[in-house]
TrEMBL record:
The keyword Oxidoreductase applies. This is Ferritin. One of its GO terms (molecular function) is ferrous iron binding. Residues 1-145 form the Ferritin-like diiron domain. InterPro entries: Ferritin, Ferritin-like, Ferritin-like_diiron, Ferritin-like_SF, Ferritin_DPS_dom, Ferritin_prok. It comes from Pseudopedobacter saltans (strain ATCC 51119 / DSM 12145 / JCM 21818 / CCUG 39354 / LMG 10337 / NBRC 100064 / NCIMB 13643).
Amino acid sequence: RLSQEMSIALNSQVTLEAFAAQVYLMLSSWADDAGLDGISAFLLKHSQEERVHMAKIMEYIQERGGKVTIEAIPKPEPEPKNAQECFETVLKQEIENSEAIYKLVDLSMAEKDWATFNFLQWLVAEQREEEKLALTLLDKVNLAGGKEASYASIYELNKDIGGTGQEF
Ligand code: OFO
């Protein structure tokens, strides 16, 4: 059974995953408005992925006899001004989320809660992949010219990100 402290900490992670989903929704909406339909679709899909993470953590808390409490989700930061800022926000979001997950791993070790430790390894692996992809996307934006990218190169980037079926 989960300790009270672990139950509270995992609950906070449920809110953080919901927040991550909101950040991706905000970015997806910005991209759509900027005419970047491929990037928008990609980010929307990832928003759903974050909700899957949220639901899995909820399920785990319940399976271990804990109680899930749904909290308010903070408002995401203002919309980006260009594709580079968009993917910088993605990377920042993923790094912050990884840090929160590492704290959960620390707590599970301190408590010798090996079931939770084992459960969290899936999230650690997921974050590694997501940070890797976020860095790749940022590299692509930089190759396209970063903040100074021409319309033509942003057009190509939008097609590339939207069309390659990249999975976060
Ligand atoms: Fe972006 O990943 Fe959830 O945890």
